[in-house]
Amino acid sequence: MKLGRIKQVELREIWKHEATNFTNWLAIPENLDLLSEEIDIELSLIDTEYNVGRFNVDIYAEEASADRKVIIENQLERTDHDHLGKLITYASGLDAEIIIWIVKDVLEEHQQAINWLNENTDEKINFFAIRMEVWKIGNSEPAPKFHIISKPNNWTKSVKKSAQQSALTETKILQLKFWNAFKEFAQNQSLNLRLRKTYPQHWYDLSFGRNDCHIALTINSQKKELACEIYIPNSKETFETFFANCKEIDAKTGGLEWMELPTKKASRIKKKTKGDFTKEDKWNEYFEWLGKTALNFQETFNQY
Asked: pLDDT value at position 157?
């Protein structure tokens, strides 16, 4: 049997720029899931380049099954004092409980600092130092790998305790049931959608092969409406490209709500319909609309 040779790839060969390349890559749901699996906690994106006073944190997220806020600072170089200071500044500004530092390499002094912070801060505060790696076997596609260098003591035990203590409300339980049923519906109907893990929340994200935006399906019990949208976390240029073709896109999708949100980094392009997701007898009807609309969005927006 002939075996391949494994080779590590330089991070800058894959991501030229931390903010415009790596951060946007990590913000894609299926890539954030890789990090979730490594640290054993379900992460859900809130925003990228999120404003914290005069600064911006690379990724602002939350634990999907609880209310713990998460900040992620990316550094495609080895650790330095500047980024360590930013981590603490962002954590205090956003009252984050999980602080993640993703780097090319960790200096021993900074590993000791992260360990010291974990040992001497409140038990609710959790610091991670994670080395980002990319590997290839022969001529294979490059594969990302997160490697934990430093983590809180008894982290696995604290995760299980947190999960046990975060009792879900009736609404959260119904949201999870709805998305699980939608996922099963999409699989049974062989819908060409990139389905991911479901969470007890009012939205469900779908990747469609782009790193600058994704499809988000939402349910709103107060307004009694369903929606499908293109969510663009941090690229007004992408929104402008789509908007320049808005007449064609509206013709193909049946008309959309174009939300540039000029005071925010994110933009949205949305289609919505009436629907009360608490009425379970209507779910198949809702699944039909969400699946059909998501497929239409996927086909249409990939053309631009």
From this structure: 45
